[in-house]
Amino acid sequence: MNNKYNMPDDRGHFGPYGGIFVAETLMPPIQELNEAYQRYINDPEFIAELDKDLKYYVGRPSPLYHAERWSRELGGAQIYLKREDLNHTGSHKINNTVGQALLAKRMGKTRIIAETGAGQHGVATATIAARLGLECVVYMGAVDVARQSLNVYRMKLLGAKVVAVESGSKTLKDALNEALRDWVTNVDNTFYIIGTVAGPHPYPAMVRDFQSIIGREAKEQCIEATGRLPDALVACVGGGSNAIGLFYPFIDDASVKMYGVEAAGDGVATGRHSAPLCAGRPGVLHGNRTYLMCDDDGEIIETHSISAGLDYPGVGPEHAWLKDTGRATYVNITDTEALEGFYALTRMEGIIPALESSHAMAYAMKLAPTMSKDETLIINLSGRGDKDMQTMAKREGIEL
Amino acid sequence: MSRLASTFEELAKTGRKALIPFITAGDPSPNFTVPLMHAMVEAGVDVIELGIPFSDPMADGPVIQRASERALAHKMSLRRTLEIAIEFRKTNQTTPVVLMGYLNPIEAMGYEDFANAAQRADIDGVLTVDLPPEEGMECSALLKARDIDPIFLLAPNSTDERVQKMDLAGSGYIYYVSLKGVTGAGHLNITDVENKLKQIKAHTNLPIAVGFGVKDAQTAQAIANVGDGVVIGSALISKIEANLDNPEQAHKEIIELLVSIRQAMDN
Ligand SMILES: Cc1ncc(COP(=O)(O)O)c(C=O)c1O
Question: In the CATH scheme, what architecture does the domain A61-90+212-395 have?
Answer without folding.
Answer: 3-Layer(aba) Sandwich (3.40)
